[in-house]
Amino acid sequence: MKLSEMKRVLAAGDIRLTKSLGQNFLHDGNQLRRIVAAAELKGSDRVLEIGPGLGSLTGLLLAEAGEVFAIEKDRRLMEYLEQCFADARNLRLRHDDALELLQHKPHDWSGWKLVANLPYSVASRILVELAQANGCPARMVVTLQREVARRLVAKPGHKSYGALTLLILLRYEPRDWFKIPASCFFPEPDVDSACVTLIRRPEPLLNQAQTKAVTKIVKRAFSQRRKMMFKLLKEDWPEEKLRSAFDALQLSLQARADVLSFEQFVDLTNLLI
């Protein structure tokens, strides 16, 4: 969908976009095709799309995948999508809040791929929710705020490295990402965006108990990232046990969370549980 057509559709339907819903629609055909290419779709693939908007990405997904399940929160856009794709037999549309649906109605997404331009305001929470699901998607190709993309691929010591980085790394490996300028969206957002590809690990790195524990440790350790991690963790773990674990891993008691690698967090968790 070209920008001129997008504006025409919005005007014809008297649809005024809502900033709180993150309604910045990608209209650049080259960028849309790059997103679809990153998904490496096959005719047998099932695709979850969150926030289809006016369907610019949806149409390309329908042409490549066997099934597309699109969740749209805005009733006005939902009505347009139902009309626009009335003949698409491989599309299921649902009018719902995607984050609430993921939180309250667990589903096995292990046989699916997430391909979506995620609403900025809930992008991180949606990714964590899916990554922590019992059946998480095989691949996630998502467009989001560039700063969030940096957090997903950040390394220890970088200012973008944090809880989101680690919670996603538990189940996914970042493969690639590319920048998408604000001019490719309508209306133009105040920030640049990026598309990130995340590939599910062949096997979970940790069992359920370990995953729960490392999630607790990571969230506590980054709750005040400028403070020493040892002092923060004392709120949840006995001091002597913490000292023993830190000594075993040769970690300084003055270390902050952002200097520890993913592997060190896993090792620390195993010593504490």
Explain this structure to me?
It is a single chain. With 273 residues, the chain is α/β, with parallel strands linked by helices. The protein folds into two domains: 3-200, Rossmann fold; 208-272, Helicase, Ruva Protein, domain 3, CATH 1.10.8.100. 41% of the residues lie in helices and 18% in strands. It has a seven-stranded mixed sheet. The chain starts with a helix and ends with a helix. The mean pLDDT is 95.
Task: Provide a compact summary of the structure.
This protein has helices spanning 3-12, 29-39, 56-64, 75-84, 98-104, 123-131, 146-153, 163-169, 208-221, 229-233, 239-248, 262-272, and strands at residues 25-26, 46-50, 67-72, 91-95, 112-117, 139-145, 172-180, 185-186, 193-200. The protein has 273 residues and is of the alpha/beta class.
